[in-house]
Write a structure and sequence with these properties.
With about 260 residues, this protein is an alpha+beta fold. Helices cover about 25% and strands about 30% of the residues. The strands form four sheets. The protein has a six-stranded antiparallel beta sheet with strand order 10-15-14-13-11-12, sandwiched between helices. Helix 1 packs across helix 2. The chain is globular, with a radius of gyration of 20 Å.
Amino acid sequence: MRLLGTYYDKLPQEDRLFVNHIADMVELCEKKYIVRFSSFLDIRQAELAKSVLNRMEHDNYMFYGGYENALRTVLGVFPTYSECDAEEFPIKALAFRYRESDKLSHRDFLGSFMGCRIGRNMIGDIIVNDGYTVAFVYDTVCGTICSDVRKIGSVGVKISLEDSPEINVNEKFEEISGTVSSMRADCVVSTAVRLSREKSAQLIRAGNLTVNCEVMISVSSELKEKDIFSVRGFGKFVIDEISGKTKKDRLHIKIKKYI
């Protein structure tokens, strides 16, 4: 395998294994000239995978989750000079129909799928609306869900495989406001996740922070307005606004958390 240097040495063991897996995908794709696909990745994993691809100078790849702007995506690594094609991705869309009066949640669907012994990495976005939910899943588990799932919670559902499902995503945010002594990573993360600076610094040093698709392990690195960052176990955030200083020279910031 091509060496990635010491950049990832401080990452947790689980992340180092993931980095090696992505590097192996790239190596196999380049040597065998075949397309390689990952399982579904969360936002942080996708950002970490991008950093590996960039460091390996492989730019013929695509993240796709079954629809535009999906949060959970599959990475497709394509051979050089071939065209990235969403049609090749091993993703299926399952539509669930039920009475609008029966209120179901994302947790209800995820619990039912995992009750069929389907791993989280085989499940993409689950878009819940009144009476109609679309779940994007890996093609290898599509049959299991269709044959084994009859109810979500206590609610009976009808399942269909759809090529062009109706997607209605209402992106929601939680607004977080506060003041920081500076835009250092540990200060911003502390405000975003509501932990002390010391605990936030520990998270960063352990490789749990990604900023604009790059893993950041330096607590003193500066963040700026409109930076998008994610903290493992706490979610994805964007620095929405830096709006002046207090009398004690602290910065007013507004952060939006994706929910």
